[in-house]
Write a structure and sequence with these properties.
Blueprint: H1 5-27, E1 36-43, E2 54-57, E3 60-70, E4 76-83, E5 93-98, E6 105-110, E7 125-128, H2 132-160, H3 163-196, H4 198-217, H5 219-263, H6 267-274, H7 276-298
Parallel strand pairs: 2-6, 5-7
Antiparallel strand pairs: 1-4, 2-3, 3-4, 5-6
Pfam families: MlaD
Domain T-SNARE coiled-coil homology: 163-225
Transmembrane segments: 9-27
Length: 314
Amino acid sequence: MKIANETKVGILAVVAIAILILGYSFLKGNDVFSSDNTFYATYERVDGLTESKPILVNGYQIGRVSKMQLLPDGRIRTEFKVKRTYAIPANTVALLASTDLLGGKAIVFELGDGSAYAKNGDELTAGIQKNIMEQVEPIQKKAQDIAAVLDSVLSSINNTINKDFQRDFNRSINSIANSLQNLEGITRQLDGLVVSERNRISHIMGNVESITNNLKNNNERIGNVLANLDSITDQVAKANFAQTILSANKAMSDFQSITDRINQGEGSIGMLLNDNQLYDNLNQASQNLEELIADMKARPGRYVHFSVFGRKRD
């Protein structure tokens, strides 16, 4: 049976169209010869996500984005195709994430820990990961703040570093250099002194070592001597302190006894302080004596009589 040319052309066209459809579907990432589970997630924005973008779990592709639809409220409903060989927990989060610095997008499944698994056609929880620019933005802001602070500091430094400051700074540097030179000269002198007095220094160090060895060897004896000395000083301190306390107590007791006797009118001081009549008599006698002495000075002839030729007879 002979096939007409028109039939051959028709069959060839159908085969070509089928191959074209299958190739286009394959290029989009569709596996024509296997069935996949379909899941959905709805996002507020997609940030450049397109169909055929991969579905990743820990960086491994388990599916692809098969379809995207803009809803009336402005959200985007996204369809995922995932191979049936992978069980997806029902509480898995479909996270929209960036895959590179150029802004490539993918859906990253953060697998949940639930015991129930998502079924074909289920809606997964949608999430959006911060892109690199959003993550870098706080750092960029801090860097800008730091740059502003550095600019202010540099401006202050420029204002501070004037001619006077530079002159003083140069003087300080010169002073430091001179000090270092003087220090170098001193170290050279010390080196020379050490070299010239090496034998004496060695002898001194030997004596010091001998003394330290003697102290080390007699450490126990020195400790005993110090302990005995400490005990003796403690005893002396205690004895002197006790004797001082006893003497002070005796002195206070004697003083109290004297004051008691004075208050009771015993003795001359007690009578003088407590006997008003005696005080008045002594005061009167003192006054009479003063008047007598004054009269003797004024009229001494009244009290003293003498004659060169003897007493005149009446």
